[in-house]
C-alpha cells in the first residue's frame, strides 16, 4: 500500500532529481475516487531521462539517494524509496516491445493534486483503454474492481471518450468488449 502522503513525497523526490514523467498506473483510478491507498506501486511513463537510452541515470540517482534499484517485468528501471516509513516502489516505463502508450495520451495528460503536490496524469478513460488492451489476468482483475466502482457510482466514465481513445489501437473492438464485460461502459 502506498499512502497519499508517501506518494506525494515520492513525486517530490523524483521531481527534485529532474525526472519528468506522467502517471499511467492504477494510481490514476485511486486518485480519481479519492482513495487513501494508491496501490502497491507507482507506474510512471518516463519522459526524461529516457529509460532505454539512459538507464544509468536512474541507477546513479537511486544510489545517490540510497534507494533500492531493480527492474520491472519489462526490464525498465524500478526504484524503491523509503518514504514516510513506507516502501514506495516506482516503476518507470517507456514504449518497448508490446508495452505502448500513445503520444496523444501523454500530451493530453492533465495535472492532478495529491497532498498538495501536482502530478501529470493520464485520464481515467486513457487508463481504462490501456488496461483493457493489455488484457493480462491481473488487468482483467483490475477491470473487474473498476467495474464495481462504476456500478457503485464512485467513478464516472465518459463512454464516448473511451470509444474515441480505443480507436488509437488496432484492437479497438477487443478493448471495448472487455470494458463492456466488466460494466465499465
TrEMBL record:
Keywords: Transferase. One of its GO terms (molecular function) is transferase activity. It comes from the Archaea. InterPro entries: DUF2204 (IPR018700), NT_sf (IPR043519). Pfam families: DUF2204. This is Nucleotidyltransferase-like protein. It comes from Acidilobus saccharovorans (strain DSM 16705 / JCM 18335 / VKM B-2471 / 345-15).
